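# nightly structure sweep
# worker-07 picked up a monomer target from the shared queue
# config: single-sequence mode, recycle default, output format = structure tokens
# input follows
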Amino acid sequence: MSIQNLRATFGPNCHWCGLPMDFDEPRERDASATIEHLNDATLGGVRKQRHRRLAHQLCNRTRNEYRLQAERQFAHWVETRVAEAAARRKEPAA
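# output follows
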């Protein structure tokens, strides 16, 4: 589904912030319209048209950065949890 088809279906405003988007070329500007995949296939989602919306380049990029940050924080939490569990197993029984 193209940007123009999504615009006709969902309107000219960003899915995330609700502000109008720029539909002119080039599309590398922060206000440019981009296709946002709501259920990212890399996270177990399925790439289907119904999971696509329009978002500003900036909103789309920022959402992905927050997602990566959250994944890193979770990975750190898991590592800490595993290390703490291993340390408890090594402690002498009282």
